[in-house]
Protein backbone atom coordinates (compact mmCIF):
# COMPACT_ATOMS: atom_id res chain seq x y z
CA UNK A 1 0.00 0.00 0.00
CA UNK A 2 1.20 3.47 -0.88
CA UNK A 3 -0.14 6.96 -0.45
CA UNK A 4 -0.95 8.20 -3.94
CA UNK A 5 -1.84 11.76 -3.00
CA UNK A 6 -1.08 13.87 0.07
CA UNK A 7 -2.76 17.12 1.08
CA UNK A 8 -0.79 19.64 3.15
CA UNK A 9 -2.06 22.85 4.70
CA UNK A 10 0.02 25.87 3.67
CA UNK A 11 0.26 29.07 5.69
CA UNK A 12 3.16 31.40 6.36
CA UNK A 13 4.47 30.01 9.65
CA UNK A 14 7.48 27.89 10.63
CA UNK A 15 5.18 25.07 11.76
CA UNK A 16 3.49 24.98 8.37
CA UNK A 17 6.89 25.07 6.63
CA UNK A 18 7.92 21.99 8.62
CA UNK A 19 4.68 20.22 7.68
CA UNK A 20 5.32 20.98 4.00
CA UNK A 21 8.81 19.48 4.23
CA UNK A 22 7.54 16.30 5.88
CA UNK A 23 4.68 15.97 3.39
CA UNK A 24 7.12 16.41 0.49
CA UNK A 25 9.42 13.77 1.99
CA UNK A 26 6.53 11.28 2.16
CA UNK A 27 5.40 12.19 -1.35
CA UNK A 28 8.90 11.42 -2.61
CA UNK A 29 8.90 8.04 -0.85
CA UNK A 30 5.57 7.07 -2.37
CA UNK A 31 5.82 8.75 -5.76
CA UNK A 32 2.73 10.66 -4.72
CA UNK A 33 1.08 13.87 -5.79
CA UNK A 34 1.49 16.60 -3.17
CA UNK A 35 -1.37 19.08 -3.01
CA UNK A 36 -0.77 22.38 -1.25
CA UNK A 37 -3.88 24.11 0.07
CA UNK A 38 -4.21 27.67 1.33
CA UNK A 39 -7.47 29.05 2.73
CA UNK A 40 -8.67 32.36 4.08
CA UNK A 41 -11.70 34.58 4.05
CA UNK A 42 -12.38 38.18 5.03
CA UNK A 43 -14.02 38.66 8.38
CA UNK A 44 -17.13 40.83 8.46
CA UNK A 45 -16.11 43.91 10.51
CA UNK A 46 -18.27 45.14 13.37
CA UNK A 47 -20.48 47.92 12.11
CA UNK A 48 -19.92 51.11 14.10
CA UNK A 49 -22.29 54.05 14.20
CA UNK A 50 -22.08 56.06 11.01
CA UNK A 51 -20.54 53.25 8.91
CA UNK A 52 -22.32 52.83 5.60
CA UNK A 53 -22.74 49.59 3.70
CA UNK A 54 -20.24 50.96 1.17
CA UNK A 55 -17.59 51.45 3.84
CA UNK A 56 -18.13 47.91 5.16
CA UNK A 57 -17.84 46.54 1.62
CA UNK A 58 -14.59 48.44 1.09
CA UNK A 59 -13.13 47.02 4.32
CA UNK A 60 -14.05 43.49 3.26
CA UNK A 61 -12.61 44.00 -0.22
CA UNK A 62 -9.33 45.34 1.22
CA UNK A 63 -9.04 42.27 3.42
CA UNK A 64 -9.83 39.99 0.48
CA UNK A 65 -6.99 41.63 -1.46
CA UNK A 66 -4.61 41.00 1.46
CA UNK A 67 -5.65 37.35 1.54
CA UNK A 68 -5.12 36.88 -2.20
CA UNK A 69 -1.67 38.47 -1.92
CA UNK A 70 -0.88 36.19 1.03
CA UNK A 71 -2.02 33.14 -0.92
CA UNK A 72 0.25 34.01 -3.83
CA UNK A 73 3.11 34.33 -1.36
CA UNK A 74 2.11 31.01 0.25
CA UNK A 75 2.14 29.27 -3.14
CA UNK A 76 5.71 30.42 -3.77
CA UNK A 77 6.65 29.23 -0.29
CA UNK A 78 5.02 25.85 -0.91
CA UNK A 79 6.76 25.31 -4.25
CA UNK A 80 10.17 26.27 -2.86
CA UNK A 81 9.85 23.96 0.17
CA UNK A 82 8.31 20.97 -1.61
CA UNK A 83 10.91 20.37 -4.30
CA UNK A 84 11.43 16.79 -3.11
CA UNK A 85 7.90 15.82 -4.16
CA UNK A 86 7.67 14.35 -7.67
CA UNK A 87 4.45 16.22 -8.55
CA UNK A 88 2.84 19.34 -7.11
CA UNK A 89 -0.61 20.84 -7.29
CA UNK A 90 -1.78 24.13 -5.78
CA UNK A 91 -5.24 25.03 -4.51
CA UNK A 92 -6.30 28.35 -2.97
CA UNK A 93 -9.85 28.76 -1.69
CA UNK A 94 -11.84 31.47 0.03
CA UNK A 95 -13.24 29.76 3.10
CA UNK A 96 -12.16 28.63 6.56
CA UNK A 97 -9.04 26.48 6.66
CA UNK A 98 -10.56 23.48 8.46
CA UNK A 99 -13.58 23.44 6.16
CA UNK A 100 -11.35 23.70 3.09
CA UNK A 101 -9.10 20.83 4.20
CA UNK A 102 -12.10 18.63 4.97
CA UNK A 103 -13.70 19.31 1.59
CA UNK A 104 -10.56 19.14 -0.56
CA UNK A 105 -9.44 15.93 1.17
CA UNK A 106 -11.59 14.06 -1.35
CA UNK A 107 -8.49 14.28 -3.57
CA UNK A 108 -6.06 12.87 -0.99
CA UNK A 109 -5.15 9.73 0.95
CA UNK A 110 -3.53 11.62 3.82
CA UNK A 111 -3.69 15.12 5.32
CA UNK A 112 -0.62 16.74 6.88
CA UNK A 113 -0.93 19.85 9.03
CA UNK A 114 0.62 21.24 12.21
CA UNK A 115 -1.00 21.19 15.59
CA UNK A 116 -2.39 24.49 16.87
CA UNK A 117 0.40 26.54 18.41
CA UNK A 118 0.01 28.27 21.77
CA UNK A 119 1.40 31.53 20.39
CA UNK A 120 0.62 31.44 16.66
CA UNK A 121 2.45 33.72 14.29
CA UNK A 122 0.01 36.45 13.16
CA UNK A 123 -1.13 36.07 9.56
CA UNK A 124 -4.26 36.62 7.47
CA UNK A 125 -4.02 32.92 6.55
CA UNK A 126 -5.37 31.46 9.76
CA UNK A 127 -4.39 27.97 10.99
CA UNK A 128 -6.76 25.02 10.84
CA UNK A 129 -8.01 23.32 13.99
CA UNK A 130 -6.80 19.70 13.63
CA UNK A 131 -9.73 18.43 15.68
CA UNK A 132 -12.23 19.86 13.22
CA UNK A 133 -10.33 18.38 10.26
CA UNK A 134 -10.06 14.98 11.96
CA UNK A 135 -13.78 14.74 12.62
CA UNK A 136 -15.04 16.19 9.33
CA UNK A 137 -12.65 15.02 6.62
CA UNK A 138 -12.89 11.23 6.70
CA UNK A 139 -9.15 11.06 6.07
CA UNK A 140 -6.18 10.17 8.30
CA UNK A 141 -4.47 13.17 9.82
CA UNK A 142 -0.68 13.35 10.29
CA UNK A 143 0.44 15.92 12.85
CA UNK A 144 4.23 16.45 12.96
CA UNK A 145 5.94 16.60 16.32
CA UNK A 146 7.12 19.88 17.78
CA UNK A 147 10.33 21.07 16.08
CA UNK A 148 10.17 18.08 13.72
CA UNK A 149 11.40 18.77 10.18
CA UNK A 150 11.54 15.15 9.00
CA UNK A 151 9.67 11.97 9.93
CA UNK A 152 12.22 9.52 11.34
CA UNK A 153 11.97 5.79 10.70
CA UNK A 154 12.24 5.05 14.42
CA UNK A 155 9.89 3.09 16.67
CA UNK A 156 6.14 3.64 16.38
CA UNK A 157 3.49 3.30 19.08
CA UNK A 158 0.16 1.90 17.90
CA UNK A 159 -2.14 2.86 20.79
CA UNK A 160 -4.77 0.16 20.67
CA UNK A 161 -8.38 0.51 21.72
CA UNK A 162 -10.53 -2.22 20.20
CA UNK A 163 -12.85 0.11 18.34
CA UNK A 164 -13.65 1.12 14.77
CA UNK A 165 -11.53 4.28 14.79
CA UNK A 166 -8.40 2.39 15.87
CA UNK A 167 -8.92 -0.35 13.31
CA UNK A 168 -9.21 2.34 10.67
CA UNK A 169 -6.05 4.04 11.99
CA UNK A 170 -4.14 0.75 11.56
CA UNK A 171 -5.20 0.47 7.92
CA UNK A 172 -4.56 4.17 7.22
CA UNK A 173 -1.09 4.07 8.77
CA UNK A 174 0.25 0.90 7.13
CA UNK A 175 2.60 2.80 4.78
CA UNK A 176 4.15 4.47 7.82
CA UNK A 177 4.19 1.31 9.93
CA UNK A 178 6.03 -0.59 7.20
CA UNK A 179 8.82 2.01 7.16
CA UNK A 180 9.21 1.96 10.96
CA UNK A 181 12.13 0.43 12.82
CA UNK A 182 9.55 -1.54 14.80
CA UNK A 183 6.02 -1.10 16.13
CA UNK A 184 4.84 -1.40 19.71
CA UNK A 185 1.16 -2.33 19.86
CA UNK A 186 0.27 -0.78 23.18
CA UNK A 187 -2.83 -1.72 25.11
CA UNK A 188 -3.64 0.23 28.25
CA UNK A 189 -6.02 -1.56 30.60
CA UNK A 190 -8.88 0.85 31.18
CA UNK A 191 -11.04 -1.81 32.88
CA UNK A 192 -13.42 -2.00 29.90
CA UNK A 193 -12.09 -5.34 28.63
CA UNK A 194 -9.83 -6.72 31.33
CA UNK A 195 -6.16 -7.67 30.97
CA UNK A 196 -6.59 -11.20 29.61
CA UNK A 197 -9.02 -10.18 26.90
CA UNK A 198 -6.83 -7.21 25.99
CA UNK A 199 -3.75 -9.39 25.67
CA UNK A 200 -5.63 -11.67 23.26
CA UNK A 201 -6.70 -8.66 21.20
CA UNK A 202 -3.14 -7.32 21.05
CA UNK A 203 -1.93 -10.71 19.82
CA UNK A 204 -4.41 -10.55 16.95
CA UNK A 205 -3.17 -7.08 15.99
CA UNK A 206 0.48 -8.15 16.03
CA UNK A 207 -0.37 -11.15 13.82
CA UNK A 208 -2.30 -8.94 11.39
CA UNK A 209 0.64 -6.54 11.14
CA UNK A 210 3.00 -9.46 10.47
CA UNK A 211 0.83 -10.40 7.49
CA UNK A 212 1.58 -6.91 6.16
CA UNK A 213 5.34 -7.36 6.78
CA UNK A 214 5.35 -5.02 9.78
CA UNK A 215 7.61 -5.98 12.68
CA UNK A 216 5.55 -5.53 15.82
CA UNK A 217 5.35 -6.64 19.42
CA UNK A 218 2.53 -6.32 21.94
CA UNK A 219 2.89 -4.42 25.17
CA UNK A 220 0.31 -4.41 27.92
CA UNK A 221 0.17 -1.64 30.49
CA UNK A 222 -1.99 -1.28 33.56
CA UNK A 223 -3.80 2.04 33.67
CA UNK A 224 -1.52 4.68 35.17
CA UNK A 225 -2.95 6.92 37.91
CA UNK A 226 -2.54 9.91 35.59
CA UNK A 227 -4.64 8.24 32.89
CA UNK A 228 -4.31 6.42 29.57
CA UNK A 229 -3.08 9.44 27.59
CA UNK A 230 -0.20 10.10 29.95
CA UNK A 231 0.71 6.41 29.94
CA UNK A 232 0.86 6.36 26.13
CA UNK A 233 3.08 9.45 26.05
CA UNK A 234 5.31 8.06 28.80
CA UNK A 235 5.90 4.79 26.97
CA UNK A 236 6.41 6.63 23.68
CA UNK A 237 9.18 8.63 25.36
CA UNK A 238 10.64 5.47 26.91
CA UNK A 239 10.97 3.64 23.57
CA UNK A 240 11.96 6.76 21.63
CA UNK A 241 8.89 6.65 19.38
CA UNK A 242 8.85 9.15 16.55
CA UNK A 243 5.18 8.48 15.75
CA UNK A 244 2.03 7.57 17.68
CA UNK A 245 -0.87 6.03 15.75
CA UNK A 246 -4.31 6.09 17.35
CA UNK A 247 -8.00 6.29 16.69
CA UNK A 248 -9.64 9.67 17.11
CA UNK A 249 -12.71 9.68 19.34
CA UNK A 250 -15.17 12.50 19.80
CA UNK A 251 -18.72 13.68 19.38
CA UNK A 252 -20.46 16.93 18.55
CA UNK A 253 -22.11 18.99 21.27
CA UNK A 254 -23.53 22.48 20.83
CA UNK A 255 -21.58 23.19 17.62
CA UNK A 256 -18.21 22.05 18.98
CA UNK A 257 -16.34 18.77 19.17
CA UNK A 258 -15.89 17.06 22.52
CA UNK A 259 -12.94 14.66 22.41
CA UNK A 260 -11.96 11.66 24.45
CA UNK A 261 -9.03 12.15 26.82
CA UNK A 262 -6.42 10.41 24.65
CA UNK A 263 -7.52 12.17 21.46
CA UNK A 264 -7.56 15.55 23.18
CA UNK A 265 -4.01 15.01 24.47
CA UNK A 266 -2.62 13.80 21.13
CA UNK A 267 -4.02 16.86 19.35
CA UNK A 268 -1.89 19.08 21.57
CA UNK A 269 1.76 19.90 20.72
CA UNK A 270 4.40 17.43 21.86
CA UNK A 271 7.55 15.81 20.55
CA UNK A 272 6.21 12.79 18.64
CA UNK A 273 4.24 12.95 15.44
CA UNK A 274 0.72 11.52 15.54
CA UNK A 275 -1.46 9.85 12.94
CA UNK A 276 -5.13 9.93 13.90
CA UNK A 277 -8.14 8.44 12.11
CA UNK A 278 -11.83 8.82 12.90
Short characterization:
It contains eight helices and twelve strands.
| Apparent shape | globular
Distance between the termini: 20 Å
Number of distinct helices? 8
Spatial strand order of the main sheet: 3-2-1-4-5-12-9-6-7-8
Structural class: alpha/beta
Number of strands: 12
Q: Helical amount among residues, as a percent range?
A: 40-55%
Radius of gyration: 20 Å
Biggest sheet: strands, sense, closure? Answer: 10 strands, mixed
The share of residues in extended strands comes to 15-25%
Output mean pLDDT.
Answer: 89
Regions with little confidence, pLDDT below 50 for 5+ residues: none
Helix-strand topology string: EHEHEHEHEEHEHEHEEEHE
